[in-house]
Amino acid sequence: MKRAARFMREEAAYRGGYVWSYLPDFSRRWGEMEAYPTMIWIQPPGTATVGHLYLDCFNATRDEFYYQAAMEVAEGLIAAQHPAGGWNYLYDFAGEESTRRWYDTIGKNGWRLEEFHHYYGNATFDDAGTSEASQFLLRLYLLRRSSRLRAPLERAISFVLDSQYENGGWPQRFPFVNDAPSLHGRPDYTRYITFNDAVADENIKFLLMVYHTLGDERALAAIQRAMEIFIVTQQPAPQAGWGLQHHHETLAPIGARSYEPDALATHTSAGNIAQMMDFYEWTGDARFIARIPEALDWLQSVRLPADQIQVRGREYPTFIELGTNRARINHRRGSNAASGEYYWDYDPAKPITHYSQWRAINLEALRTRYERLRAASPDLLRAASPLRLRAGFELPRFFTTENIEVSDMTSNAGSANFERPTPERTRELIAGLNAEGYWPTPLTATSQPYAGEPPAAASPGDFSQTLVGDRFDTSPYVTDAPVTGISTGTFIQNMSALLLIADSGD
User: Fold this and answer.
1) Among 184, 445, 145, 482, which residue's Cα sits nearest to residue 337?
2) How much is the pLDDT for 409?
3) Rg of the chain in Å (alpha carbons)
4) By the 8 A CB rule, do 58 and 496 touch?
């Protein structure tokens, strides 16, 4: 374990930070997109995820080596922290000019990654980057109460509090940028109240951690406001669902990227139903489950009959048109970010493949849970609520081996992703570590290098269902001929397995 961690600290890390993968000679490296050598990636599984791993290794072994490794990660995150307290997807230590150059070249030419087509200069809640970095700083601070970490942690807490609307919702990005342009014919979406990618869920999780470990009453007040936005944004029956985003003033469902049209979203609605049932468990307040039957009935109404299912196991269209209940299906034409465009219609043929147009939802499980909660005693539910402070509360010792659910935080419980490896698996992991100190991994995700500004005319070919367009498209894609390299994800996964073997139990 130490040999693998030493390689990552000494060879892969840049000023305490990490990206997602590297060629063995470090001539190219990637986060979600290709990165400069001076960049670190905040978006999981990046810098903060590695920090969580080092903390887990320290808790398993009590080896000071891992605590110091975690502190190096913290220093990288502190340097990358926006003055307002949050984080962007990435950070470039070479400075603002280098960052803008990346956005103007690699970023804006990732056809399907429109969130990188403009540099806002602020921070984002998207993809849990800010949330995970904040959680890591909190965990590390609680270990020894280092004064070096207190101010950055306070900034992270303030960022979540300051960015919250009075109605309880959170925008995707903050602080607001007044001159943010429209993108691909769509208005700036970064101020909209965002449910997509668990923005509200992740912020609530972090605030629960803050409340229970630091006793900060501001966190509790923010959680209570956040719960209310789920109620007021649920649409009227018979379409009693939610969108990926809702307008911050009108609260109406509204689109974002050009392949996220104005519509209700079935997977987001299912997630919000589950979250509302969590809120009922926390509060016993019947308002949180009063309209769940309407939402469940609406999901049932858009469930595809067997002869219309396009992808096995995915019975629900992703986007449902307001008023008609028809599925809006996204397509694209052209060959790159300059010559191509996304559009929607009602035709299920040739949909885009990088953003699923159909979803798997366990509607029966949601109904069963609702019926169980309806029969439960609200007083008994409130007695076990995570909104009540508990004496002696501690965060889980390990984060990278568990899928921590917000509703489990008060009991330190999570849904384990890892089991203690068998002796055979342990031997495989140890033998697989090469002489340099990393686990060689086929880098199945790659990208085309930036090839300059694309011409106005589209290249010949059909790119409607590919992950990448022509040679000017810098989007990541899955290759059939992967190069063997260094994977941060493999490092995290294998180390998480080994630390269960090494765990001292102290």
Assistant:
1) 184
2) 27
3) 23
4) no
Answer whether the bond into residue 45 is a cis peptide, omega within 30°. Answer: yes
**What integer pLDDT is reported at residue 402 of this predicted model?**
77
Distance of CA 4 to the CA centre of its chain: 26
How many Å apart are CA 360 and CA 314, to the nearest integer? 4
At residue 248, the 3 state secondary structure works out as coil
Query: In residues, how long is the chain?
Result: 506
C-alpha distance from residue 495 to each of 24, 50, 404 (Å): 19, 10, 18
End-to-end CA distance of the chain: 18
List C-alpha distances in Å: 167 to 178, 222, 247. 21, 10, 12
Euclidean distance between CA atoms 154 and 382, whole angstroms: 29
**Whole-angstrom distance, CA of residue 504 vs CA of residue 28:** 38
**With contact defined as beta carbons under 8 Å apart, do 405 and 415 qualify?**
yes
Alpha-carbon span 77 to 390, nearest angstrom: 30
What is the rounded distance in angstroms from the CA atom of residue 98 to the CA atom of residue 257? 25
Question: What residue type is 384 in one-letter code?
Answer: A
Could you tell me if residue 421 is left (phi over 0), alpha (psi between -120 and 50 degrees) or otherwise beta?
beta
Rounded to whole angstroms, how far apart are CA atoms 138 and 136?
5
pLDDT per residue over 221-260, tens digit each? 999 999 999 999 999 999 999 999 999 999 999 999 999 9
Sign of CA dihedral 454, 458, 464, 469: negative
- 164, with CB counted inside 10 A (0-12, 13-18, 19+), is buried
How many Cβ atoms sit within 10 Å of the Cβ of residue 391?
4
**Residue pLDDT, tens place only, 470-488:** 999 999 999 999 999 999 9
Q: Is the dihedral of CA 386, 389, 393, 394 positive or negative?
A: positive
